[in-house]
Amino acid sequence: MRSIKSTFFLLLISILVISTGCKSNNTGGKDELDGLIWSDEFDGNRYDRENWYPELGAHGWGNNELQEYTGSSDNIVVSDGTLKIVANLEGDGQNVGDYTSARLLTYRTFHYGRIEIRAKIPADNGNGLWPAIWMLGDGIRNGVSWPDCGEIDIMEYVSYAPNQFYCTIHSAANNHSDGTQLGSGALVLDDIEEEFHNYGIIWTEDYIKFYLDEPTNTVYRVNKPADANTYNWPFSQPHFILLNMAVGGDWGGAQGVDDSIFPATFEIDYVRYFELEE
To answer: Is 68 in the active site?
Structure first.
């Protein structure tokens, strides 16, 4: 007859196996958090004001965008373990300020390491949405202008071009204003509007590698120039993270804005920052 002790041990093992499986499903198979330095898992019912602050206003944001960014609970929702950035139609449509959305920035800056964000693009899109996961050089908070500060676009998506996303960097030497940005071009992802995916970078002194789902799945890499300086490689400086969804704009609104798609939700499961493996 099996002893009570051995029966209890087998039961405990079964519970651990089941628990591990559940965690794997929640994180897309990433249940190893070795090297984790900082994260926001978006638990609870509000975003952490010590981690994030909302940028506000309807200024076009340099791209002729139509939304007003707010800190309202109508545009920033935390529930069921995810952050939802919600874009709403508030006015008649087609004009600046007729739409509201949100743009959250980290107080914290990051300098080299692995950064991973698990997110899901709005489903059943019409034209006009422009969600993004990106970084700006901290110098922009201290008087350094764009693009001199540096910009790392971990994931950008425009809803008139479904099933694909983009990874890009901008500097004074290479940026979209001059049409000289360095980027992946369109990366096909057939279920991007239906499923969560992990979007990440591995950022070292010598390169930035962009990956999808797993760190080994590199989708784009850019190397530090041999003659690196602040003009062509501002990525030796700390950067902070931004999460936002724009409406319209020079790129997002290149084929107009479909007012029937609102409200639209950009959903983020987590943001994680890991030290680099030796």
So the answer is: no
